[in-house]
Design goal:
Layout: E1 2-4, H1 20-30, E2 35-38, E3 43-51, E4 55-61, E5 64-69, E6 73-74, H2 79-86, E7 94-100, E8 103-108, H3 111-131, H4 135-167
Parallel strand pairs: 2-5, 6-8
Antiparallel strand pairs: 1-3, 3-4, 3-7, 4-5, 7-8
């Protein structure tokens, strides 16, 4: 989704500056009815991308595509992302691009993990409103953090298994499940 912060500013360039062929490619990928816009100062954008030498097109909604200037985005937030950028393998990557002023940083974005994070964030906010800074509230917040980490770890393991199956790298797994080092939840 395209999100602009309360201090989102002016557009960083005009969509007319984006080559016609790139706009046509965006329509071929995401539909002829998509609306084009340029990134804004302090804007935040999340979605799949494809790149040209000078621009990054990003689908930020069902019918919305934002164009970024590639030179304004820092891809060095992770070694893997920088490597994909350097070898021109960013097409179809799901990225979060966040501007501070007119310069942005990019991050890999995993929509399913984001759902987990958002869900637990909402639960913690509601719990904080209900219990406040009480011992009960602190215990519950700690338990939520534990459960969230377990869910994220399980999700990570499932993704790794899927990757191994897709790439034929599945190795013989031990028949005994590994012991988990999680402490039991306090009641």
């Amino acid at each position: 989704m395209e999100r602009t912060s309360p201090r989102a500013g002016k557009r960083l360039h005009d969509v007319a500056q984006v080559p016609h062929s790139m706009r046509q490619e965006a329509q071929a990928r995401w539909g002829v009815n998509v609306e084009f816009s340029a990134a804004r100062e302090n804007g935040r954008y999340t979605g799949p991308v494809f790149v040209s030498d000078e621009h990054v097109a990003q689908r930020v909604g069902e019918k919305s595509v934002v164009f970024h200037r590639r030179s304004q985005i820092d891809f060095a937030t992770s070694e893997a992302l920088q490597k994909r950028h350097d070898t021109n393998r960013l097409n179809d990557a799901n990225l979060s691009i966040r501007y501070e002023g007119d310069m942005a940083k990019s991050y890999f974005h995993d929509p399913q993990r984001a759902v987990i994070e958002e869900m637990f964030g909402r639960i913690k906010k509601t719990a904080d409103e209900r219990f406040g800074d009480t011992p009960q509230g602190k215990t519950f917040a700690s338990q939520l953090d534990e459960v969230k980490e377990v869910m994220i770890e399980r999700y990570r393991e499932a993704k790794n298994r899927q990757f191994e199956q897709r790439t034929g790298q599945a190795q013989q797994r031990p028949t005994e499940p590994q012991e988990r080092q999680h402490k039991p939840l306090e009641r």
